[in-house]
Amino acid sequence: MSYGPFDLRGIPLALHLNGPVDVPALLGACAAVGRLHPVLGRVRVTRTETTPERYPGLAEAEAARPFDLDRGPLARFTLVTVGPGRVRLLFVAHPAVFDAASKDVLLRELADVYFSQAAPPCAAVPSRRPAPSRADVPSGTDASGDAEAFWAERDREPAEPVLPGLRAVPDGTGPGEIVEMVLGAAESGALTEAAATLGATRFELLLAALGALLRHYGTAASPLALDLGTRTPRTRERIGPFTARVPFVPHPGPEEEFPAHVRAVRAELRAMYRFRHAPPEPSRAPVLLSYRRRAEVPEFAGVAAGVEWTVFNGTSRGALHVQAVDAGRSLTLGLRFNPAAIDREDVSGIAGDLRALLRAVPAAPRSRIADLTRTSAPVAESVPG
């Protein structure tokens, strides 16, 4: 696989610790986690100091610093002291050895090892690892020729997306900016209720809504790819690149009812899950949706802990990359885009349209798509040239 300059940037994460942090124990935990997960290879651990005002710039620069794939290392920890009792641990790893779900594993391991090094000798190390479950792999999983045939049926040229203000569709990974929005407890709860009404999950509802919005803008067929997790019970607690970018084919008709589209989305996802462990070559579809349910922040002995789950590394992929992080009582959406292809104002408008649609669905979940989008989003006035 060939990499462009923006493909050399990694997946970042920032851990905030406030209180009497045992710095040697934390540094030791970083090195130990690297040894626990050989896929990370030689992990670099460094330490620095800065001020609270300068920390955001330092974090942004560290997230955007490229990796040398030939020389390594492909993972690095940077421990930043921003004031008395205030520590920020920046972690960045290349996608060749890490994925978004690996963040949960990394934090649990760090907390466990930090506890064992910082706690009194008589203290027992708590076990935070959930037991593997066969529910991780749907019944009927098939990694044989059936999987090859399944993905071959979906190997088609993705549709050209129609988005407000879109001037071009960038190929691959390039420079990016991001527009973020957070659906709080009320909106998130309404989505949960709407999903239950339609016999779907929140992910399925979000995917169906995104497809409906793309149809409303004028996109004739699906331009979508999904980041699909490929973990098994055996790899559930491993750090690594257990994600595949796969095409997503269902696309709503202009007069389709929303419940029917949700059923089509759900059926396709259930079919895809059977073959997720034998994925195809990465899809080059121009609109990408990444979705994950994040774990709770683990406890770090004697200090208050918080996590920046979606530190931005300054990259974008294709025409639009929608990243969703589901925290249960909230849903954070980040819309990544290339400013050479579409303006921030237009992406902010897309974010607003998506939010309005996600508000309209709970109010009338059994409506026609045309009725939902007519009241929640204006029709796009511009198409790719």
From TrEMBL:
<feature type="domain" description="Condensation">
    <location>
        <begin position="55"/>
        <end position="277"/>
    </location>
</feature>
<dbReference type="InterPro" id="IPR023213">
    <property type="entry name" value="CAT-like_dom_sf"/>
</dbReference>
<dbReference type="Pfam" id="PF00668">
    <property type="entry name" value="Condensation"/>
</dbReference>
<dbReference type="InterPro" id="IPR001242">
    <property type="entry name" value="Condensation_dom"/>
</dbReference>
<protein>
    <recommendedName>
        <fullName>Condensation domain-containing protein</fullName>
    </recommendedName>
</protein>
<feature type="region of interest" description="Disordered">
    <location>
        <begin position="124"/>
        <end position="145"/>
    </location>
</feature>
